[in-house]
Amino acid sequence: MSRAGELFGIAASGVTSRKVRTLLILLGPVVGVAAMVGAVGLTESAKGDLKEKLAQLGTNLVTAKAAGSFGQQDPTLPKDAVARVRAIPTVERASAVSEITGVITLPAEGSSDFYEAFPVPVLAADDRLPEVLEVPLRSGRWLRPSDRKTHSRAVVIGAGLADQYGFVRGEIRTVTLNGIDYGVVGVLDRVALDPNLDNAAFVTQWSADHDFATEGEPTKLYIRATPGTTSTTNDAIPTAISLGGTNEVTTSIPSDALEASAQADETLQQTALFAGILALAVGGLGIANVMSISVIQRSSEIGIRRALGSTRSLIGLQFLLEALFVGILGGVMGAVVGVGVVYLVASVADWVVVIDYGRMPLWITLAVVVSVTAGLYPSVKAARLEPLETLRLG
Amino acid sequence: MTDTIVAAPLLELTDVSRVYGEQVQVYALREVSLQIHAGDLLAIIGPSGSGKSTMLGLLGVLDRPSEGTVVVGGRDTGTLDDAGRSRLRGDSIGFVFQQFHLIPHLTALGNVETALLFRNIDRSTRRERAMNALEQVGLAPRADHRPLQLSGGEQQRVAIARAIVTDPIMVLADEPTGALDSRNAANVMEIFAGLESNERAVVLVTHDHGVAATANRVVSMRDGEIIDDSRQVPSPFRGSA
């Protein structure tokens, strides 16, 4: 066996032969690495759903709203606002809604007190809205051009409102809007990028004009930009809508808010990561402590090895190798514990587990670096021991 | 006129002093000269504080003299660095201590094998030589026992096997029977008597006259100096005195 192999054997037996001491030393790297793997894994898993949602929804939706001048109530956009934004070359699709004020929507008789206190928003929408939002119908269908032409009183309700109403898929249901019966023809699925729509009722422009006497001016536009041009499209929209007129327009990119929320999670992750590094550093101090005590306890072994011909450097290397083994073992065990914690918490919180296994070598290397650094002082101390002092001659 | 060929000593101390302390200097050894030859079964005897242990440290290349030279196997130890001294120690000297100093987590065989590490000896040869050494001290059947599973006498026999497995030119024993009862002490002294050979010296450092009586040469020390160096006819060990 080579010299290196023999040294490895001695160091390995030093680690495995004193199980309680080794367990104590292992606690530091195990806790540190587990904390770091857990911190990153948990925050990544927590925002994993959000990222998935963002990927599904796309980040190219822009909304435009009329901004009221001082003293102006219920500001609106120009009637041809959709046509104006479609003129922007980077706009793929656009749809408009008009909020109809003063409409009381009741799902059943006897519920007027509640819905008068908390009125359901009623919106006149065009037939392209689900396509622009890229949100499917949970059940039934969306408003059709034929509804407008045939003057049918059809309403689509948001998913939140459907849940509130206890709406069952396929159920024939009428609701009253200011006392006029409307047939529920469909339920729009949840709109992650604009949750206000979840509790709204949608009617055709004909209903808005005929039953509620609106002017048909949109209050909000939903615009899909060509991927990669969201920001420039967002900048161009106010000018395109106002065309030098007096209309003031504010725009926003809803996915930005979701991304900001993900960003907030990253700050949390960094804090947790810092705590993990701190735990590893404290663990390193523990290693240095326990190994220093171990050098004193094993002074007889060191003395006899020196008497039998081991050089100072071989003794130092033996202890440094023991620290290296502790780092590797602790790092791997910590990674396993960290992954276990992420799976456990994710299963309880119903998250999609997101673990970057590519980072594992980094965490384990960090544990090894801390362990070996912590083992330096005890190793030097062991190497410097004089055999004559440790063997206590008679 | 007849020329007499005198064999070179295995170990030679010339005007060796060992001083401790800097401001207040205490001489543990003072200008000691000693030659140890192959075939010597030498007992260094003296009361506590006479300099026996200091002498053992210097003979075993575990310590450096403050003055004088220590030559082992023809090599002046003063010219060697730590690695050279360690190699010389490992190759030339076998140690037996009063407290055995066996490594607790290794078996008897493992402990004996320890002396053969870092010498480019393959594992099977190492095991074979370690087993032979254990057979020499009558402990082959207990090769896989750990120190705690062995009696004091057996532990000391493992230590002797560890000392002789490298085939050193000198075996240094520090109070080898100090921690043993009289029966085990007799066994151990019988083994030491058997180690006497024309190629090796055995040095017993002791304050026990019973042990010293088994040697063929006795060096008496007092206050860091050799006060007597005489040859004698060894007698069998008859217990501590």
Question: Explain this structure to me?
Answer:
The complex is a heterodimer of chains A (394) and B (241). Chain A has 394 residues and is of the alpha+beta class. In chain A, strands 1, 2, 3, 4, 5, 6, 7, 8, 9, 10 and 11 form an 11-stranded mixed sheet that branches. Chain A has 2 domains: 3-54 and 259-390, no CATH class; 61-252, no CATH class. Chain A is built from 15 helices and 11 strands. The longest helix of chain A is centred in the last third of the chain and has 44 residues, at 254-297. In chain A, helix 2 packs antiparallel against helix 14 (360-384) and helix 13 (312-349) packs antiparallel against helix 14. Chain B has one domain (38-63, 81-231): P-loop containing nucleotide triphosphate hydrolases (Rossmann fold, 3-Layer(aba) Sandwich). Chain B is built from 7 helices and 10 strands. In chain B, helix 3 crosses helix 4 (123-136), helix 3 (108-114) packs parallel to helix 5 (152-164) and helix 4 crosses helix 5. The termini of chain B are far apart. The model of chain B has no long low-confidence stretch (mean pLDDT 90). In chain B, the strands form 2 sheets. Chain B has a 6-stranded mixed sheet with strand order 6-7-8-3-9-10, sandwiched between helices. A 4-stranded antiparallel sheet of chain B has the order 2-1-4-5, covered by helices on one side. Chain B has 241 residues and is α/β, with parallel strands linked by helices. The longest helix of chain B has 14 residues, at 123-136. Chain B has helices at 52-59, 82-92, 108-114, 123-136, 152-164, 182-195, 209-212, and strands at residues 11-20, 26-36, 41-45, 67-72, 75-76, 93-96, 170-174, 201-206, 217-222, 225-231. Chain B is globular and about 50 Å long. Chains A and B meet through helix 1, helix 12 and helix 13 of A and helix 1 and helix 2 of B.
Please render the helix and strand layout as text.
The complex is a heterodimer of chains A (394) and B (241).
Chain A: H1 3-16, H2 19-46, H3 48-57, E1 61-66, H4 81-86, E2 91-100, E3 105-106, H5 112-117, E4 122-125, H6 129-133, E5 137-140, H7 145-149, E6 154-158, H8 159-165, E7 174-177, E8 180-188, E9 201-203, H9 205-212, E10 220-225, H10 230-242, E11 249-252, H11 254-297, H12 299-307, H13 312-349, H14 360-384, H15 387-390
Parallel strand pairs in A: 4-9, 6-8
Antiparallel strand pairs in A: 1-10, 1-11, 2-4, 2-10, 3-7, 5-8, 6-9, 7-8
Helix pairs in contact in A: 1-13, 2-11, 2-13, 2-14, 3-11, 11-14, 13-14
Chain B: E1 11-20, E2 26-36, E3 41-45, H1 52-59, E4 67-72, E5 75-76, H2 82-92, E6 93-96, H3 108-114, H4 123-136, H5 152-164, E7 170-174, H6 182-195, E8 201-206, H7 209-212, E9 217-222, E10 225-231
Parallel strand pairs in B: 3-8, 3-9, 6-7, 7-8
Antiparallel strand pairs in B: 1-2, 1-4, 4-5, 9-10
